[in-house]
Design a protein that fits this description.
alpha/beta; seven-stranded mixed sheet; globular
Length: 266
């Protein structure tokens, strides 16, 4: 299936705020309540232990809520997660920071994933966002990490495959109804209206989900992009798929500087 870089409603700057908020809430609570990323979070935790890493730069962090779930899943007091985004949601980030008891912080200024400031050191984590970028931009994300000798991890819960798309299409009406009528608490008049009564929000969520699958990258496509990055041979790369929710899969990419190079004096 050919990759199609179509638009998602959540990408559109003119999308009304109530619709955008509803889509993001559906996506976040679906991911957290269904524990969609648990196997990928376990793999990330193992990488942190093996490399003795305690700092995560959560890029393209959206509303930041998923990183609160990651922090709780890791269960480590010494691991600090820092949220950032090109369009940072400062108020939401501050709320996540309070709920995490300081284990999750945030960057107030805009951070471009294609040119992350050098002082933001630590494992770069991009969750459910790589499919939003064109191939040359994905290569740029990898190039920036390798050029600044920072570890990087991608997690993508969507697959460009007919079965994955059909599974999402079948599940989405039920998920939207559940999230609108009690899956997210407390109940919201906005969510009920946009999710069930006049289900414009549910429709946008459905369309964005299908388009996300159509924009997804295969592991071989990631490998091809890695091969185009100067200095990629100085990294250890791990590309695999891990189990997700109800038969789904998560594409996982990890690139870490080779240990013997990391130990060389500057």
């Amino acid at each position: 299936m050919q990759r199609a870089h179509l638009f998602e409603f959540n990408d559109l700057p003119w999308l009304p705020s109530p619709l955008r908020k509803t889509i993001r809430e559906f996506l976040h609570h679906m991911s957290v309540r269904l524990r969609m990323y648990d196997s990928a979070f376990d793999l990330l935790g193992e990488l942190l232990r093996q490399r003795e890493l305690t700092s995560i730069q959560a890029l393209c962090a959206g509303d930041g809520g998923l990183m609160l779930a990651l922090s709780r899943h890791l269960g480590r007091e010494d691991v600090r997660i820092q949220l950032s985004d090109k369009y940072p949601a400062a108020e939401l980030y501050a709320e996540v920071e309070r709920e995490s008891a300081g284990r999750v912080g945030h960057v107030a200024e805009s951070v471009d994933v294609l040119n992350v400031p050098a002082h933001l050191e630590g494992l770069r984590l991009v969750v459910n966002a790589v499919h939003h970028f064109q191939p040359e931009q994905v290569r740029g994300i990898l190039t920036d990490a390798v050029g600044k000798r920072q570890p990087i991890v991608f997690m993508e819960p969507v697959q460009r495959e007919p079965l994955a798309i059909l599974r999402f299409c079948a599940a989405t009406p039920l998920l939207s109804a559940w999230l609108s009528l009690g899956g997210i608490w407390p109940l919201s008049v906005r969510r009920t209206l946009l999710g069930v009564v006049v289900p414009v929000g549910a429709f946008c969520f459905f369309v964005d989900g299908v388009v996300s699958h159509l924009r997804a990258y295969h592991l071989d496509e990631w490998r091809d992009l890695i091969a185009q990055v100067d200095g990629h041979e100085h990294y250890d790369w791990d590309l695999r798929q891990v189990p997700g929710f109800m038969g789904s899969r998560i594409s996982f990419l990890a690139g870490l500087p080779k240990v013997h190079l990391a130990q060389e004096p500057a």
